Amino acid sequence: MGSLPAAANWTDGAGTAGADAGNLSAALAAGAAEAEWLHLLVQAGNLSASSSAPGLPAASPAPTQPRANLTNQFVQPSWRIALWSLAYGVVVAVAVFGNLIVIWIILAHKRMRTITNYFLVNLAFSDASMAAFNTLVNFIYALHSEWYFGANYCRFQNFFPITAVFASIYSMTAIAVDRYMAIIDPLKPRLSATATKIVIGSIWILAFLLAFPQCLYSKIKVMPGRTLCYVQWPEGPKQHFTYHIIVIILVYCFPLLVMGVTYTIVGITLWGGEIPGDTCDKYHEQLKAKRKVVKMMIIVVVTFAICWLPYHIYFILTAVYQQLNRWKYIQQVYLASFWLAMSSTMYNPIIYCCLNKRFRAGFKRAFRWCPFIEVSSYDELELKTTRFHPTRQSSLYTVTRMESMTVVFEPSDADNTKSSQKKRATPRDPSFSGCSHRNSKSASTTSSFINSPGTSVDEYS
Description:
Blueprint: E1 10-11, H1 31-43, E2 71-72, H2 78-108, H3 115-144, H4 150-184, H5 193-216, E3 218-223, E4 226-231, H6 237-271, H7 281-320, H8 330-355, H9 357-366, H10 377-384, H11 390-404, E5 407-413, E6 416-424, H12 440-445, H13 447-450
Antiparallel strand pairs: 1-2, 3-4, 5-6
Helix pairs in contact: 1-6, 2-3, 2-8, 3-4, 3-5, 3-8, 4-5, 4-6, 4-7, 6-7, 7-8, 8-9, 9-10
InterPro entries: GPCR_Rhodpsn, GPCR_Rhodpsn_7TM, Neurokn_rcpt, NK3_rcpt
Membrane topology: Multi-pass membrane protein
Main location: membrane
């Protein structure tokens, strides 16, 4: 995620991609092209011998005037620049405002403050931040091959994208693990609010540590007619390439593997069996609610994976086959793959709005000033009331579990009070729990799968 966007845009007629300025939003794509790019600039006379990169041959002194036959291979027509600017502008606008509304919906409405939604706040914050502080800056740098934003922002530009992507993907991973624990082993205590904050804080600390080398080795280089922002690793491009392979594994491959395994198991559990035909309404409602949440999060994860895959493939291919950086259309390939990666920040609010009725009600409230948006009384109730209270749920859970097996002790002999015999008590009327007598056994055996103490339907809907 170093920033070196226009790897040799000014050459004798062949250059590297105007986009090869890496970044995981400026950071994943620079490394391997860096040495070649500097070498081409030396050949073009833009670098003096004193500024040659380590390991590169010494260059002859730079001429006082640029060579007349230097051309920019990657200059784009105005209409194409306008289209790319519009595409990136839409991503930034939707991502920033959409994710800020998600944060407001969760924090401003007590009913929305669940464990899962706290992680969604963290995910929305990281996505909004990356869209606001990185996307347009990196787009401008890739388009103009000129760094306009100073040395401090150069460090931030190379550092923050990895941090934000790490926080995003591991917030999704935390949700996947939390869903797994809640559904597969519901009797274990859930994360408390304090524990959730500790997990989120730990995610950001690890993200900072992973991205710190990008900040440490970021440099700007002022050259005749241009300023560059890039990452100069002590041991050269090989070290840079190794680092970013590690980054790809940690922010893409490993978390997606974890989420793939957990959601597969959860999906088999939720959709793999038949629902008992006449079980309690509470069972049906919570099962449907859990399915909706899991379905929504699976779509979020799959969207992230699809959006970032072309960008990672682009980085690996251009690093291994450096001749691709001279291809005529490589800048368009970079801009397209980078746009798709950055667009991942804008899809989540749309997914929440389409698949979750409470988020949909929240978006209606946020846009109720629009003439075509109507907020119904039902939408207001969705965010203000709680239909199932944890205390009532917990009592129902206890009664249902008690019905499946109740143990009493009676003295078997007056002379031996220490010995006792277990007797199964006659269960109470199963209709008390809302389930029919015919399926009370199946309902009780699945109660531990559906219910957990202190958990309400609000947690899942």
